[in-house]
Amino acid sequence: MRESSVSFCPVPTEQQPIHEYQQLKDSWFFRWAKLELRNYGLKLAWVWGLSWLIAGPVAAASFAPHQHLVQFILAGGAGAGVFLILVLLRLYLGWSYVCDRLSQETIGYEESGWYDGQTWTKPPEVLSRDRLIVSYQVQPILQRLQRTLGIIAILIISGSLLWNLS
What we know:
This protein is mostly helical. The protein has one domain (about 15-110, about 120-165). The chain is about 70% helix and about 5% strand. It has helices at about 15-25, 35-60, 70-105, 125-165, and strands spanning about 105-110, 115-120. A two-stranded antiparallel sheet has the order 1-2. Helix 1 runs antiparallel to helix 3 (about 70-105), helix 2 (about 35-60) packs across helix 3 and helix 3 packs antiparallel against helix 4 (about 125-165). The protein starts with 16 loop residues before the first helix and ends with a helix.
């Protein structure tokens, strides 16, 4: 008897897009993007706050807080923001990679090493399932991360304007 197209997949389990999605979803770090809004914001606030441990002393060395308080706060906030942006970019790139793998009709994989790359065309049932996951699970996460990066861009622009006014 012939195996159904859904059950037969030559791609090694760890390279299957659905498995990569599951690993990302269960990952300690990448799971942050799936948290409810309040907890998501708290995680990002912690990253930004802890980044002040590095950015604060650098900003204080450049702008003495007792003489140039506004510049110190803006420089320290921007410096801490760099770490936050890097964290958000890592989240975005990880989810974007999985989104691309799930959306593709054919996927590349390696059986035993870099030298024997193969491709596999997903059967219609698998492709439909993967694209549903993208539509209802992954796209909202990517949109949240894009909105967050947009808010940070607005804060950076506002900080730049405030810097020029002070």
